[in-house]
Design a protein that fits this description.
mainly alpha; 4 helices
């Protein structure tokens, strides 16, 4: 199957939407479990598990967001950074990852 840039964007957008749905459902499940237990705060173990789950999903979303930007721009930013030693491209990559991470954190906190 021939993957055009439009198909790649659609595939990456779908890959980005699935973890966001998982984040939202995990937050809903955590709120439901706390409400059902009658506690105002989760236990230490629940907090650790929640942190690990949200951390892994957040890192995956940051990577997917960077790759999505790389596809949309039609330029290989990784090659610019590592082979051409382009500092501006490295700053751009850092800003992209930071921006996606802020969006993911806002989604987790909502």
């Amino acid at each position: 199957m021939n993957k055009t840039p439009r198909n790649k964007i659609a595939a990456l957008a779908t890959a980005l939407a699935l973890p966001l749905l998982l984040l939202q459902s995990a937050a809903w499940a955590q709120e439901t479990a706390v409400a059902a237990a009658g506690r105002s705060r989760p236990s230490l173990l629940e907090g650790i598990v929640g942190t690990l789950v949200f951390g892994v999903i957040g890192i995956a979303l940051a990577i997917i967001g960077f790759k999505l930007f790389d596809v949309v721009v039609h330029h290989n930013i990784e090659q610019e950074i590592f082979e051409n030693k382009n500092m501006a491209a490295a700053l751009l990559a850092g800003a992209i990852v930071l921006g996606v991470s802020i969006i993911v954190a806002a989604t987790i906190l909502s």
